[in-house]
Amino acid sequence: MDRDFLIELFSGFGPVTLRRMFSGFGISVDGVNFALALRSGVYLRADETNIPKLAAEGSRPFQYQQRSTGKVVTVNSYWELPARLFDDSEELADWAKSALAAAQRAAGSKRPRRRTAKKPAVKTPASKKDLHKPAASKARAVTSVAKRKPGESKTARRKGS
Q1: For residues 157 and 161, what is the distance between their CA atoms, to the nearest angstrom?
Q2: Claim: this prediction has a pTM higher than 0.70
Q3: Which of 23, 121, 147, 149 has the most CB atoms around its CB within 10 Å?
């Protein structure tokens, strides 16, 4: 499924954001992902509120096969969009609203992620000599270089004093 088809499909619902995801797109509104468009079809976010309605339409939950083990994994939070809704944008809009509400409920029930404090950046000296030099002496060295006359070397200046 291409981007233009999906935008047109959900046009009755309103503007949606599509993001590349897996082998297709994640479909969201205001940062809340409420549908998936994959090679195998379009799937709506589901929970205990709208699963009975999806099941009554003959929809099934999203499934995929793990590459490493070959095990079939069922994802009950996304259910297949009933085929008849591809031709009825008004009714699809109602189903999309229901899926968005399910996604918002799921987002609200998640515990906030713990933020880990960033470790402060550790400055590493350029050389071992820099470990023992205090910062002030570095500043003096820079200023003494600036006071030299043009063409005058460090040794010439010392000899002249």
Answers
A1: 7
A2: no
A3: 23
